[in-house]
């Protein structure tokens, strides 16, 4: 038998021994032994084995002093295994169950932080993002003196920025597919929901463009009113931004909207309608 084969057999033997030790503990039914092993695996960051063992005994220690640490570590195991939604649920349950625990603040923070980890790219559904914002804000309200408040506020700003980006891109998409009224509604809501946005200039420019195109594509009796509202939007833009980016484009939109709003056919139509 060559040396390499001997070495592989030795490795296999010790590997099997280790596996057998874990399996023996797992199937032993000895709760204190399982807990000791679970804590050891947890300390060594072997969260999969620790999670498996904690799950076996979590009900066995219910109501006992060990229960708090077991549940807390169990929640963290799921977090470290990237099972964020489940870990969030477990941390939340911990905070509701162990209301006097010194770990309750951390558990509540982690409940929200785990949801934060699920927040996807802005192009996808943002229900998790909204839930995380709500959770972080609730944490700040409950623990205003916590050292974690700064982190919560930073995460809230980050998540709100993602929601803002989604709304802005949605508005631009509506414009590109010629859904001008939807574009205007989206941009109006964006400015209400995110008054601190850094995109004010471009949003106002896009609103003027969308309003102009909406007027052009409206039924005849609605056109003059919408061209005039376009002029008002361009006036507001120029008052706020008299120079710089988009100014020449805005002036051209204003010129075109004014010209079209002065179409004498609008007044004739109005007079004819009044006569009827």
Distance between the termini: 110 Å
Give the helices and strands as they follow along the chain.
Answer: HHHHHHHHHHHHH
Total helices: the number is: 13
Poorly predicted sequence stretches spanning 5 or more consecutive residues: none
Radius of gyration, taken over Cα atoms and rounded to an integer in Å: 31 Å
- Overall 3D shape: rod-shaped
Helix content: over 70%
Overall mean pLDDT stands at 92
Range of strand content: under 5%
Main sheet, how many strands, which sense, barrel? Answer: none
The secondary structure category is mainly alpha
Total number of β-strand segments? 0
How would you sum up this structure, described in words?
With 276 residues, this protein is an all-alpha fold. The protein has a domain at 25-98. The protein contains 13 helices and no strands. The protein has helices at 3-26, 31-43, 47-57, 67-80, 84-97, 104-116, 127-142, 149-176, 180-193, 200-216, 220-240, 247-261, 264-275. The radius of gyration is 31 Å and the shape is rod-shaped. The N and C termini lie far apart (110 Å). The mean pLDDT is 92.
């Amino acid at each position: 038998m060559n040396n390499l084969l001997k070495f592989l057999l030795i490795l296999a033997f010790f590997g099997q021994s280790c596996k057998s030790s874990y399996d023996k503990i797992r199937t032993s039914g000895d709760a204190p032994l399982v807990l000791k092993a679970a804590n050891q695996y947890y300390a060594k960051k072997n969260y999969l084995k620790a999670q498996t063992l904690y799950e076996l005994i979590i009900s066995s220690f219910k109501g006992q002093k060990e229960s708090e640490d077991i549940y807390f570590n169990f929640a963290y195991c799921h977090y470290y295994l990237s099972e964020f939604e489940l870990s969030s649920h477990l941390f939340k349950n911990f905070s509701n169950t162990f209301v006097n625990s010194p770990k309750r603040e951390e558990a509540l923070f982690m409940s929200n932080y785990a949801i934060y980890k699920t927040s996807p790219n802005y192009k996808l559904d943002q229900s998790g993002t909204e839930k995380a914002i709500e959770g972080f804000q609730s944490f700040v309200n409950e623990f205003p003196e916590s050292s974690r408040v700064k982190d919560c506020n930073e995460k809230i700003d980050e998540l709100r920025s993602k929601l803002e980006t989604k709304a802005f891109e949605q508005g631009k998409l509506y414009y590109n597919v010629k859904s001008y009224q939807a574009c205007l509604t989206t941009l109006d809501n964006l400015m209400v929901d995110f008054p601190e946005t850094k995109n004010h200039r471009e949003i106002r420019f896009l609103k003027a463009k969308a309003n102009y195109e909406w007027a052009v594509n409206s039924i005849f009796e609605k056109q003059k009113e919408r061209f005039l509202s376009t002029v008002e939007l361009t006036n507001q833009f120029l008052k706020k931004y008299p120079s710089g980016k988009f100014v020449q484009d805005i002036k051209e939109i204003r010129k075109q909207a004014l010209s079209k709003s002065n179409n004498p056919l609008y007044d004739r139509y109005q007079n004819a309608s009044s006569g009827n």
